[in-house]
Design brief:
about 70 residues, alpha+beta, 4-stranded antiparallel sheet, about 20% helix
Length: about 70
């Protein structure tokens, strides 16, 4: 990724409480229908991999990772 940050949507199984928010600093958490959607700016690949490492470290099941277009 060059030229700045990209907005990402990361979806995990389970409805996470705000207790997990500090682990995903800078991301908005929205729990619904048995899953949690994290949306926010990711500045580079290292940042993205750090977020995915936290998903793994918390023992969460990763369902989806999507780079969002500017209109989303």
């Amino acid at each position: 990724m060059s030229g700045g940050s990209t907005r990402y949507k990361i979806v995990v199984r389970g409805e996470l409480s705000e207790h997990f928010a500090p682990g995903f600093e800078g991301m908005d958490l929205r729990a619904e229908s048995g899953r949690t959607i994290l949306v926010g700016e990711v500045v580079d690949q290292a940042h993205l991999y750090g977020l995915l490492d936290r998903v793994r470290d918390f023992g969460l099941e990763l369902l989806q990772v999507v780079a969002l277009s500017e209109s989303e």
